[in-house]
Design brief:
The protein contains twelve helices and twelve strands. With 349 residues, the chain is α/β, with parallel strands linked by helices. It binds nicotinamide-adenine-dinucleotide (NAD) and thymidine-5'-diphosphate. Residues 89, 186, 196-197, 200, 212-214, 219, 221, 256, 288 line the site of thymidine-5'-diphosphate (TYD).
């Protein structure tokens, strides 16, 4: 069946993998990638599909109400998969307003355009909102986030994502918009902007620069390979029940310091350096303000109801990720533009 799918944020890290997944696997769907191309958006992430007949790209801002309205007037969208967002916690601490604007107001603009465009005819439509496990707050040493865990966001980023989740549910309950939400744990893999932990560590080791570890490196995250997330999004898109939320996680908790040491070992091996060389770059720095201690997802609902589970082991996913960054130096050097360098100086001194 022909479907027109609007994917927002498709030039970013996760969005580019989702766009590729849908373009490759569903030749009958028409995928329209809408992205503002902020510092995190990069069309080089999707060069392999740019000339496919079922793919097109539109540059635009989800905060631009008139543009979004006209977009929905021009295309008969059957579904929206909404990933566009400001996504980096540290940037949300130093400059929260952009997060409030894009993550909350931008999401509402899309919800409203979908509601108006699909009015009286929304039975087979879907607005799928991609969110994060960070909306649930911070765990102690025990326990997992389930879909029933109360929201308790603690950073401007997670609070803005929590607000957007509430807005999506409000448009469902109040206006009958068919929606589904998934909340995923930390992703890693190719094409991630090197301000996030995994690519930052790889890039710093490559350049012999210090590896900044916040606090004592005791914080815990649950890591999922990005292509497994793209498969989870496919599963929820096709099989998820309207109005429901699905948690997505890797069942793969790592203390930051242990993950960093593992990356150091893989880098030493790949670069032909003596084991232990990269670990010498580890530098403990001032902790992130309000740093959440632990995130961990209970993904039993999506597994038992929809049949999704992670398929890539952490060892093989990290190996693949390191190889990708080492083989794509041009990509890495290009995204490390002047603008990023000044942010880096501000953040780390
Ligand atoms: P990213 O920062 O790599 O990409 C975001 C994309 O959105 C970029 O291409 C950017 O240009 C685009 N964008 C930003 N503002 C826009 C605007 N106003 N209009 C149009 N496009 C705009 O982010 P990511 O890591 O790929 O995350 C994608 C989504 O997944 C986000 O909603 C994020 O909250 C969510 N998420 C991320 C993770 C993770 O580990 N990275 C985990 C769970 C959920
Ligand atoms: P990050 O990749 O920013 O993801 P998030 O904060 O959304 O989980 O950070 C992952 C973890 O790594 C988090 O506990 C903060 C920590 N971290 C560092 O220790 N040093 C760094 O330079 C960065 C970017 C993150």
């Amino acid at each position: 069946m022909l479907k027109n799918i609007l994917i927002t944020g498709g030039a970013g890290f996760i969005g580019s993998h989702v766009v590729r997944h849908f373009v490759f696997n569903y030749p009958d769907y028409r995928v329209i990638n809408l992205d503002k191309l902020t510092y995190a958006g990069n069309l080089k992430n999707v060069t392999d599909i740019e000339s496919d007949s079922n793919y097109s790209f539109i540059k635009g801002d989800i905060n631009d109400v008139k543009f979004i309205r006209e977009l929905f007037d021009s295309y008969p969208f059957d579904a929206v998969i909404h990933l566009a967002a400001e996504s980096h916690v540290d940037r949300s601490i130093s400059g929260p307003m952009e997060f409030i604007k894009t993550n909350i107001t931008g999401t509402v603009n899309l919800l409203d355009a979908a509601k108006n465009s699909w009015a009286g005819n929304n039975k087979s439509k879907l607005f799928y909102h991609i969110s994060t496990d960070e909306v649930y707050g911070s765990l102690g040493r025990e326990g997992l986030f389930s879909e029933k865990t109360a929201y308790d966001p603690r950073s401007p980023y997670s609070a803005s994502k929590a607000s957007s989740d509430h807005m999506v549910r409000a448009w469902h309950h109040t206006y009958g918009l068919p929606v589904v939400i998934s909340n995923c744990s930390n992703n890693y893999g190719p094409n991630q902007f090197p301000e996030k932990l995994v690519p930052l560590v790889i890039n710093n080791i490559r350049n012999g620069k210090n590896i900044p570890v916040y606090g004592r490196g005791e914080n815990i995250r649950d890591w999922l390979y990005v292509e497994d997330h793209a498969r989870a999004i496919d599963t929820v898109f096709h099989k998820g029940r309207i109005g429901e939320t699905y948690n997505v996680g890797g069942n793969n908790e790592w203390k930051n310091i242990d993950l960093i040491k593992m990356l150091c070992g893989i880098m030493d091996k790949k670069l032909g350096r003596r084991q232990g060389t990269s670990e010498k770059l580890i530098t403990f720095v001032k902790d992130r303000a309000g740093h959440d201690l632990r995130y961990a997802i209970d993904s039993s609902k999506i597994t038992s109801e929809l049949g999704w589970r992670p398929s890539v082991s952490f060892e093989s996913g990290l190996e693949r990720t390191v190889s990708w960054y080492l083989e794509n130096k041009v990509w890495l050097n290009e995204v490390l533009s002047g603008k990023y360098k000044s942010y880096y100086r501000e953040q780390y001194g």
